[in-house]
């Protein structure tokens, strides 16, 4: 499958580019990154930890290319050094704890938004100008333009503070022991309702509009008319003839919005105090914990590239032309 | 030209969207005359609910929420339009260059565009803003403008490439038109709807992102904007103590300008792609056409 191989090659290059950007940002900024990052941690960090940090991050005094080589080594051995804020935990440990929560939160809401948005988009296009379309489409448009912060804060106030239906923060009841017990899973699900739904809510509108517009384009095509003329059921024409083709641009949109879902997840995690990557990044930025920030960016880029790869594979499945090419 | 205005005003979404955006512009321009206090002035006791004196209540610092909201409109619109302009100019320049010239130029530009598209935006912005330290709204506009051009470049490139194969372009090429004229006179007018779409989309994105960055505490805390209002509300736990007005005011203002701008974008989409118009519009147009036909028939019919 040359297509998939080509994409994988591109993602490897993209990851290297991200690593270079990650390396350059602190060096392009005014001020000394070392002072910057120790300004807040001066008292809590023992000198030997400071020396270790300097070493792993290639901040050691030396020519730029040596710093870069040292940095590359730390990236590819995944030895990202210690976190300043969570010392003595290493960056990999902190990220390893946070990653699953973000994958769970962002993944669930991306899939929720995609399915709900696409299905409602198909229905809106099928009865274009009908009652459902004239309510759902403008509504989708309005919803699409509302930022994740606003939705999250509104949900927090209405369902968390005013009505007290759902917990206002954290991923599970802190009184329970993490494990595969039914209570714990129930608590995780209960705490996830508000973050997942409020994060998905923002993106439903975009999928609805994209799907509706593509569907309308498809409905005028000959093969759809042919399907109807053959006397196939509406359902079959709608899903197997029109929607399957209309789905391709939506899948591209899905790949492009993974980034904004991660951005939205960042905000949602901060508002709901959810222990994922976004909140960790926030904490790291507030504490000027640079090793952690750098590690975060790498992991987030990696997550995004993986998601894009998954979408490429879905493309191969949806578009038979790519299987031969 | 008057014809294109007519096209715009016949679209209900465009009219509503334009009205909303113009209202915001008016508020931003008239800020000194609408408000009584300076935005950072203490006008009352902290966390006062809305009343006749303070229309939208006060913040923890005893500042008037209404005044801050009005002055914040200025900041947000300025940042949105500035960054939107930067994004559009970079995106259009790169997109047309890549799509029109093709070859290795296209390869290089397209490669960087694709990379910019897969690097997570918001985390990158956060990190840059954190290193700049207490970024002012102006700096935030620059950062967003310089990092968010990829989508516009890709879309403009695709459209330029499809235009490039049309006959009128090939004809003017054979006629020996210089490159600048090809781009400015033949290509740009045909790219206008995509450029407009890109610009307005970028303004929405910037307003939302600026508010998000400031909400997370990466902005200049002394700037007056919707984002810093949200940040101050969050740090003073306004929601937890029930001071909803501190959050509701900036949140609804952000939401409404977003809706107004995306209505315009939706209208651009509909005007440039008539298939997307809702049946109501189609039916209305058909009815108007029938009325015209009838008038014509009546006018030419012999007197009965």
From TrEMBL, chain A:
Q: Name one GO cellular component term.
A: plasma membrane
Q: How does it sit in the membrane?
A: Multi-pass membrane protein
Instruction: Extract the PROSITE patterns matched here.
Output: ABC_TM1
- All copies of the ABC transmembrane type-1 domain together span 99-315
Q: Which InterPro entries match?
A: MetI-like, MetI-like_sf
Q: Which UniProt keywords apply?
A: Membrane, Transmembrane, Transmembrane helix, Transport
Q: What is this protein called?
A: Peptide ABC transporter permease
